[in-house]
């Protein structure tokens, strides 16, 4: 575990909003790419970054939904991208690269959770494929446009506690478990940031991962109310219980990660509640970040596997 993986005292908390963490930060002239930037915490991320002066590119799986969600917000460009479709990733990246623009921050906020077993692309398990491999291919394809000093923010989850990388059966050929699949994909999001940070450091390009909090969004589309009541997420009326955040609060950590000067000179860290997270306690409590998600050997191994599966590697 890296010794830098400890709170730094940002002055923000679990109730801070994306707008609050951007107070006094002028993003005029900066370009941000936000996947999933038209729903849930991604939508709030797009709004906050654009309000602070950034130009935001929000590639969408469902363009019409994005157009409706982002209507009236200035400095936002919508494009098309399906992270489960390697050809869609390639054509989006090619369109973007052809414009010759530079990217100052990438926030990979798109994701699916606990979806029924399905396959995407050339047969990838869908949660690993969309949440990890799709973003892996996207960032690698866009790498030549990433500006020196940029930040790449990989949106993970405390769900990474549910599973390390299952090296013996990443694709769940021997029986599917939707929460293990989510956990593996979210562990991959963290390991991706660990390895990318190594590659980008020489150019001042730093990568972080994070848990945004627990926020009611469309992410629960694959779950029944009964399951969420049993898991203690909701009451029987469908209201969030416990330490839930609003979408504006849920977007705060990724916006903070992408912009805070307090993180200058750091990278490869897992964040939550607008601060660096603590290591997970040894007693198995689902809090902080697990060792296996920050392990540099695991990160390097996952990179090789992901490059092999996607056929893309900006660092080969
Ligand atoms: N909400 C929480 O409590 C929570 C907790 C921990 C971590 N997270 C993480 O936060 C991130 C954002 O989640 P959210 O809560 O904002 O969920 P959300 O409202 O469902 O947003 C997810 C976004 O991902 C997009 N997406 C899904 N599949 C895609 C694909 N194949 N290609 C391109 N885009 C795709 C969705 O587009 P469509 O609507 O068009 O499918 C949507 O815009 C996820 O990575 C999630 O794991 C959320």
The helix/strand series, from N terminus to C terminus, equals HEHEHEHEEEHEHEEHEHHEEHH
**Measured distance between first and last alpha carbons:** 27 Å
Count the helices. How many?
A: 11
Whole-number mean pLDDT: 97
CATH top-level class: Alpha Beta
- Stated plainly, the CATH topology is called Rossmann fold
SS content category: alpha/beta
What does this protein look like?
With 316 residues, this protein is an alpha/beta fold. The protein has a single domain (18-220, 247-307), classed as NAD(P)-binding Rossmann-like Domain (Rossmann fold), CATH 3.40.50. The protein is built from eleven helices and twelve strands. It has an eight-stranded mixed β-sheet with strand order 3-2-1-4-7-8-11-12, sandwiched between helices. A two-stranded antiparallel sheet has the order 5-6. The model has no long low-confidence stretch (mean pLDDT 97). It binds NADP nicotinamide-adenine-dinucleotide phosphate. NADP nicotinamide-adenine-dinucleotide phosphate binds next to α2 and β9.
């Amino acid at each position: 575990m890296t010794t830098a993986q400890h709170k730094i005292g940002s002055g923000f908390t679990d109730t801070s909003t994306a707008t609050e963490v951007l107070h006094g930060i002028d993003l005029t002239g900066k370009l941000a790419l936000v996947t999933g930037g038209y729903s849930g915490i991604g939508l709030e991320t797009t709004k906050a970054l654009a309000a602070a002066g950034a130009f935001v590119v929000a590639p969408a799986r469902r363009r019409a939904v994005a157009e409706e969600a982002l209507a009236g917000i200035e400095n936002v460009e919508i494009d098309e991208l399906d992270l489960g479709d390697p050809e869609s990733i390639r054509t989006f990246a090619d369109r973007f690269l052809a414009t010759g623009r530079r990217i100052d921050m990438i926030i990979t906020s798109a994701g699916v959770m606990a979806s029924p077993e399905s396959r995407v692309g050339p047969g990838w398990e869908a949660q690993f494929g969309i949440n990890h491999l799709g973003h892996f291919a996207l960032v690698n394809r866009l790498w030549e446009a990433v500006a020196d000093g940029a930040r790449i923010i990989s949106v993970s989850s405390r769900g990474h506690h549910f599973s390390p990388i299952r090296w013996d059966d990443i694709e769940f050929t021997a029986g599917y478990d939707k929460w293990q699949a989510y956990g593996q994909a979210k562990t991959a999001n963290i390991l991706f940031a660990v390895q990318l940070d190594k590659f980008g450091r020489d150019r001042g390009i730093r990568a972080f991962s994070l848990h945004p909090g627990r926020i009611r969004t469309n992410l629960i589309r694959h779950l029944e109310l009964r399951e969420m009541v049993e898991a203690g997420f909701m009451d029987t009326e469908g209201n969030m219980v416990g330490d839930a955040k609003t979408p504006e609060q849920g977007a705060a950590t990724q916006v903070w990660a992408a912009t805070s000067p307090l993180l200058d000179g750091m990278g490869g860290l897992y964040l939550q509640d607008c601060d660096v997270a603590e290591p997970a306690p040894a007693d198995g409590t689902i809090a902080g970040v697990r060792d296996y998600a920050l392990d540099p050997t695991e990160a390097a191994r996952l990179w090789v596997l992901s490059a092999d599966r996607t056929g893309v590697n900006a660092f080969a």
